[in-house]
Amino acid sequence: MAMRAFEVYVNDRKICLAGIGEAGVLSAIVNWVAGSSGEDLFLSVSGLINPASEHVSWVQQKPFAVGDEMKVRVVEVESVDEPRRSTSEEAAKAIEDQKDYARKLAKRLGIGLESER
Question: Do 21 and 3 form a contact (C-beta atoms < 8 A)?
């Protein structure tokens, strides 16, 4: 059965063919982040497969530079590339709970954390 998918290219080089099947969310996001610690340009391709609530990722924070070209082509295909990462919603929630606990403990102990992700 055919599914919609994203065929993602950077500078005419195919990065991935991403798809989530019949139900869910599929995203290709180009990010530019700037602040006191510098700036970063990167690409992320990920999704959420329903009803399993499985978070999947083909590309996480792939760096690129000014002048690079991104192309996302929407296609209908029978199969897609395997995601590089996959976590269930429960596992993702457990990780976030652990991070939240670590942040609270660090704050209570007066320890600064470099990243609050």
Answer: yes
